[in-house]
């Protein structure tokens, strides 16, 4: 067994092995490369050399894929890529034992929530009738749901006092009344500010809802059912033929960040997951790093929006 001193070089040799010896297409080899990159980033964050990883380490990696909502079929492909990489490392003399031999592949076939594409979400936003009184509010709602990956209960309960616009953060009251800091994108901030200026500032607010961000026409907190109605209606107007709910935007948030190369643990922390299988890998991630994950990897930050 020998140490890996240049992981980039080893990965390039692995890709050459896939294309030249295994006869894989360039696209398939590229997918394997992306899968290995996810593992490399995860182990680097854990402070573990890739040739020193154990089966337990790799099982924690798989748990992070599950926790951010990656579908079983995609998990299976990623695990296949990781297994191929470790088989190659063993052949090359970097490993004595293969830690992936006992790594389980998830069962395929279980129904999971749909994922919206970036284009579909853009079409939903374009379908909002901005001439209506609730238009700006609904635009801000969709940008906040998708831009922060919130649960619908977290969105309807969001308070003005929990917004820190200048710092680009919002405090979310999650499950079990546990609070977490979530970065909020410039696009979402812009739409929230427009809603506050153009709509909410002119409303008569009902008693008890003074601190609630998103209000209905009567000046009270929105219901979960109302958010479901808004999202489903916009999907219909946008011609999106998928079975969706507000949670679909949260699921899409996590999937798009991961596909864009965001840090797995940062996504976990932003989503506020409390799974027993992933609690042990939580580490402190400072606010600047979380904010940078959103700014660098969220697709809504890669284009200008009117």
How would you characterize the overall build of this protein?
- Helix content is 53%, strand content 4%.
- The protein is built from 13 helices and three strands; from the N terminus they run αααααααβββαααααα.
- The protein is elongated and about 70 Å long.
- The protein has helices at 7-21, 26-46, 55-67, 72-91, 118-126, 135-148, 152-156, 186-198, 224-237, 246-259, 264-271, 276-279, 287-297, and strands spanning 163-164, 169-173, 179-183.
- A hairpin with a 4-residue loop joins strand 1 (163-164) and strand 2.
- The protein is mainly α.
Brief summary of the model shown:
The chain has a three-stranded antiparallel β-sheet with strand order 1-2-3. It is mainly alpha-helical and 306 residues long. It has helices spanning 7-21, 26-46, 55-67, 72-91, 118-126, 135-148, 152-156, 186-198, 224-237, 246-259, 264-271, 276-279, 287-297, and strands spanning 163-164, 169-173, 179-183.
Give me the secondary-structure topology.
Blueprint: H1 7-21, H2 26-46, H3 55-67, H4 72-91, H5 118-126, H6 135-148, H7 152-156, E1 163-164, E2 169-173, E3 179-183, H8 186-198, H9 224-237, H10 246-259, H11 264-271, H12 276-279, H13 287-297
Antiparallel strand pairs: 1-2, 2-3
């Amino acid at each position: 067994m020998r140490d890996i001193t240049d992981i980039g070089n080893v990965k390039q040799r692995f890709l050459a092995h896939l294309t030249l010896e295994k006869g894989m297409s360039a696209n398939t080899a590229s997918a394997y490369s992306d899968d290995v990159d996810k593992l490399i980033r995860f182990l680097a964050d854990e402070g573990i050399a890739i040739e020193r990883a154990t089966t337990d380490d790799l099982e924690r990696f798989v748990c992070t894929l599950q926790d951010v909502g990656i579908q079983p079929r995609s998990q299976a492909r990623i695990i296949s890529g990781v297994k191929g990489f470790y088989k190659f490392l063993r052949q090359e003399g970097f490993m004595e034992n293969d830690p992936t031999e006992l790594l389980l592949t998830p069962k395929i076939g279980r129904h999971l929530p749909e994922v919206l594409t970036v284009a579909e979400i853009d079409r939903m936003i374009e379908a909002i009738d901005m001439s209506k009184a609730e238009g700006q509010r609904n635009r801000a709602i969709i940008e906040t749901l998708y831009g922060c990956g919130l649960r619908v209960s977290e969105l309807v309960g969001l308070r003005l006092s929990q917004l820190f616009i200048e710092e680009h953060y919002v405090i979310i009251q999650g499950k079990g009344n546990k609070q977490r800091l979530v970065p909020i994108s410039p696009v979402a901030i812009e739409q929230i500010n427009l809603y506050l200026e153009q709509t909410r500032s002119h409303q008569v607010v009902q008693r008890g809802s003074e601190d609630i961000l998103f209000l209905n026409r009567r000046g009270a907190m929105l219901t979960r059912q109302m958010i479901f109605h808004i999202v489903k209606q916009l999907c219909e107007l946008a011609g999106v033929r998928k079975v969706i709910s507000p949670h679909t935007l949260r699921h899409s948030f996590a999937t798009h960040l991961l596909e864009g190369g965001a840090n797995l643990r940062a996504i976990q922390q932003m989503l506020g997951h409390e799974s027993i299988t992933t609690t042990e890998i939580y580490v402190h991630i400072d606010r600047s790093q979380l904010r940078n994950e959103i700014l660098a990897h969220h697709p809504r930050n890669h284009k200008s929006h009117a």
